[in-house]
Specification:
The structure holds two protein chains of two kinds. By secondary structure, chain A is mainly alpha-helical. Chain A has three helices and no strands. Chain A is rod-shaped, with a radius of gyration of 32 Å. By secondary structure, chain B is α/β, with parallel strands linked by helices. In chain B, helix 2 (18-32) crosses helix 7 (181-204), helix 2 packs across helix 12 (304-314) and helix 10 (267-287) packs across helix 20. The chains are: A mainly alpha, B alpha/beta.
């Protein structure tokens, strides 16, 4: 019983002990860093999406341009005929 | 019938497309950075960081730099600033001593009594002191005039969680206030050369250069590469980058870690800075001659992709001149063929220009707002006109009355002059850029040098500097560390 009390007391003390400044700082920076990593990963993924969309737009514009203002260049014409 | 000389001429024209292929290759890799990046291996890591600030007569800017460094969002107890004063003759020592009195645990003044030997010697003085103590777990090398954004250092140190990473570099942005046309050209150039290219190099696993103004090394990495910076060349940053990677550690670029720097605002000062860089690149190419196209010796630096990118820059003026020579040769020997090649070359140029310019502006929208015009004018007005005309090859044919199989004798005089000029432009544009430099150097009116640069393009200016660097290296000209004059008017734009 006495031993249990001791265990109970020590646990209570542990819970109520205030975090040291260093630990607080560490936890703060851990949270901040995790958020930054998430945001940066998202940002990089966005660049990938922009790139794919952008290439599609360029190819589409080239197609429209060739349709109305043909270049009369062999390999361009052969691609246009296949499409 | 094509003669052997014609085949050589065609080969020369194709060489001119190498820089375009290299740029396109890099720009396609950037998208992959969304999937293959180092963020997955990072985490909160706040080592003791010793910041080395080499300073020679930086009295006007050093106080501001120290204040900015100490105001970064990083635990103060883990931050020390070592200003290595390279025998300054101005008030630099007084400013640093005053800062030491204000922050005795964070700011330290290291004085070299014999100075002027160059940045690498200055850095080594600081590195010796820092490595002699056990305190520092990471070393950040910066320039005296750069400004770090509050979170930049933390964004860099997080990569060192991964012990295979030896060094990390940040994105240096042009921050002159208010800035001028030249500094805005540089702002745009830095998107392509850093924010874009270095992301691609992250994907390739081989970084070309840690920016001199923001390179973070783990203590282990600095010790592994000999505990010192190379002093034999003008490209000490690139030497350090290569040594890090050849030693088996990664060098990482973090495009979200931003540092602001004041870049040259005149063609003359830009020439000095870039000539040093270009000569440094030539020296690195020679010093690491065993790694090129050799993965066994060069690891990822020896890959075909990295060698392509490296030589596309180092040999760009050669490629441009040979391309012109090839086209002009074919003009006389087989005009129809030369015209077809010319049009194909420029169609590739149209695609590369559109893709690189617009995507660069997307990558860094903040810089795009202030430097979009410089981005558009980057190739110069004449090349830009050719790019626009190349979208309509039929109109170009019509203009010179081109019919298949025709020879140059059948062209009208105006068409002859025009076509020859366009063929030669790839080489001539460098000459015009050189005239812009001479005009600026000899203090001719600003509008003259600016007009010449707008005609030639900013890219050709960098090209002619590279060409000039070959001559300087060939002549074994003195390795002079010309310090770029800074006004201290750099601001962090948010």
């Amino acid at each position: 019983m006495g031993q249990n009390n001791k265990i109970g007391e020590s646990s209570y003390i542990k819970i109520t002990t205030q975090l040291s400044e260093k630990e607080k700082l560490r936890m703060h920076y851990e949270a901040v860093t995790n958020n930054e990593i998430k945001a940066n990963k998202k940002q990089e993924k966005r660049l990938f999406i922009y790139q794919v969309s952008f290439v599609i737009v360029i190819v589409a514009l080239a197609f429209v341009k060739e349709r109305f203002f043909p270049s009369h260049i062999g390999w361009v014409e052969s691609i246009m005929q296949k499409l | 019938m094509l003669t052997i000389l014609n085949y050589i001429a065609i080969f020369f024209v194709l060489l001119g497309t190498i820089p375009l292929w290299a740029s396109l290759y890099q720009f396609f890799l950037i998208g992959l950075h969304g999937i293959k990046n180092h963020y997955g291996s990072t985490g909160a890591y706040l080592p003791n960081v010793a910041i080395i600030v080499p300073a020679w007569n930086e009295g006007d800017v050093i106080g501001n730099t120290i204040e900015h460094l100490l105001s970064m969002d990083y635990p103060k107890h883990a931050l020390r600033v070592y200003v290595v004063d390279d025998a300054s003759t101005d008030h630099t020592p007084d400013v640093v001593k005053a800062k030491h009195a204000e922050y005795p645990d964070n700011v330290f003044h290291l004085r070299r009594e014999k100075g002027g030997e160059g940045k690498a010697h200055t850095l080594n003085h600081g590195i010796n002191v820092i490595l002699g103590e056990k305190w520092a777990e990471a070393i950040l090398i910066i320039d005296a005039d750069v400004l770090f954004e509050k979170e930049t250092l933390r964004l860099m140190t997080r990569h060192l969680t991964d012990k295979t990473v030896g060094s990390v570099t940040a994105y240096i942005k042009e921050g002159s206030a208010p800035g001028n046309f030249i500094s805005k050209f540089i702002a745009f150039e830095y998107i392509t050369a850093q924010a874009a290219s270095r992301r691609a190099q992250n994907v390739m696993g081989s970084l070309a250069c840690l920016a001199g103004g923001a390179q973070l090394h783990s203590r282990e990495n600095l010790l592994a590469i000999g505990g010192r910076i190379d002093t034999s060349s003008l490209a000490e940053d690139t030497f350090t980058t290569f040594k890090t990677q050849l030693n088996g550690r990664k060098a990482i670029f973090d495009g979200n870690a931003v540092v602001w720097a004041e870049e040259p605002g005149s063609i003359e000062s830009l020439w000095k800075q870039r000539l040093r860089w270009a000569r440094g690149n030539v020296q690195v190419t020679k010093a690491f001659k065993n790694i090129w196209l050799n993965k066994k010796n060069g690891k990822n630096l020896g890959s075909i992709g990295f060698s392509l990118i490296w030589f596309a820059i180092v040999l760009m003026p050669v490629f441009m001149i040979l391309s012109s020579v090839g086209l002009i040769w074919l003009y006389f020997s087989d005009f129809a063929l030369s015209w077809t090649l010319f049009k194909q070359f420029w169609i590739l140029n149209v695609f590369a220009y559109l893709f690189i310019t617009i995507y660069s502006l997307i990558i860094d929208k903040q810089t795009a707002k202030k430097a979009w015009l410089q981005g558009i004018l980057f190739p110069g007005i004449i090349s830009l006109t050719t790019i626009v005309l190349s979208c309509f090859p039929g109109t170009m044919d019509h203009f010179i009355h081109f019919v298949n199989g025709m020879q140059h004798e059948q062209l009208g005089l105006t068409a002859k002059i025009l076509v020859l000029f366009m063929y030669a432009w790839l080489a001539i544009c460098m000459l015009v850029a050189y005239l812009a430099y001479l005009s600026d150097k000899h203090k001719k009116p600003y509008w003259l040098s600016l007009t010449l640069i707008l005609i030639s393009g900013f890219g050709p200016l960098l090209c002619v500097i590279t060409l000039y660097s070959y001559i300087m290296e060939y002549k074994k000209a003195e390795l002079k560390w010309d310090k770029t004059i800074k006004s201290g008017k750099v601001v962090i734009s948010k």
